[in-house]
Amino acid sequence: MKLTPSILLAPLLLSTSFLLAREAPPPPSPPRPQHPDPVWAATFDEAVERARAIPEGRLLVELRDPECPDCDRMADLVYPSPSFRAFVQDKVPVRLLRNTPDGQRVSARFGIRVSPAWIVLTPDLLLSGKQEGASNQSTWIERFVETERGWALFQQKLAEEKKAPGDPAAAFAVGEEAFRRLGDSMAEERFRRVAGDPKADAGLRERSLAYLAAIAIDARRFDDAARALDGILATTKDPALRQKAELRLADVDLGLGDRVSAKRRLESFLQKYPESPLRPQAEALLKAIGTANP
């Protein structure tokens, strides 16, 4: 049979159509969400008020000095970026000068020593994340990511505690994390619950008392601290915890203004525990007492 040109071309046309179909460009990707520019609060109090109005809202506090070229450089590098705009969608940003009353208070509470710096807080001043010092854009963005990852893990601990309200281990885990985030009131409530729970493991109760003592000393509630430390010494079989509790009682003596008792306690500690890893601390504290003005 004689093949006509149309018959000869048919396989080629089919093949070409098939190739064209395979090589067709993919459909366009959906546009990335464009986050609006953040609206900075004029004052710290305004930022707190606005953050409370946002579900799970937080503050992003920038701390800077009046004359700070590095602060301006980091702001120019970071704040126009899409990553920053996405990061502050559930946060209210506010800028504080470190030499103002609010700036001094926030810097002291959260240990800010250099500018530029930023911290992320809840309206109740629970620390969510922190960055100090100038670097580069990628470092600050990485810290944003780490902040959110750590905060998400903390939310998981809170969810686990909520599912098992009677579990002292879950309450202790939240208390310990809150303590690290400088949320002393949140931590203290959990540690008191665990320390007074007869069903809790003895080790958890004693560690809770140690945290309660630290919180009380920081708040200058020295009688509360002494009771917590005496509670540890009455039950603990952990030699390291016992030594820490005995040494912290010297801090309580000093807080109460009783240098004679503190000196006596430290001398007894050094004699009782000559190989203690806490010996340098005890010696330094004893030396400071001896050189302090009466």
Protein described:
It is built from 13 helices and 4 strands. It has 294 residues and is an alpha+beta fold. The chain has 2 domains: 44-150, Glutaredoxin; 156-291, Serine Threonine Protein Phosphatase 5, Tetratricopeptide repeat, CATH 1.25.40. A hairpin with a 5-residue loop joins strand 3 (117-121) and strand 4 (127-132).
Features:
294 residues, alpha+beta, Glutaredoxin, Serine Threonine Protein Phosphatase 5, Tetratricopeptide repeat, 61% helix, globular, disordered N terminus
Beta-strand percentage?
Answer: 5-15%
- Written as H for each helix and E for each strand, in order along the chain, the element string is HHEHHEHEEHHHHHHHH
Number of domains: 2
Bulk shape: globular
Number of helices: 13
CATH fold title of the largest domain:
Serine Threonine Protein Phosphatase 5, Tetratricopeptide repeat
The order of strands across the largest sheet is 2-1-3-4
Major sheet details: 4 strands, mixed
Helicity range: 55-70%
User: Span between N and C termini?
Assistant: 123 Å
- According to CATH, what is the class of the largest domain? Mainly Alpha
Rg value: 30 Å
User: Based on helices, strands and strand pairing, what is the structural class?
Assistant: alpha+beta
CATH architecture of the largest domain: Alpha Horseshoe
| Strands, count | 4
Ranges where pLDDT stays below 50 over 5 or more residues in a row are 1-23
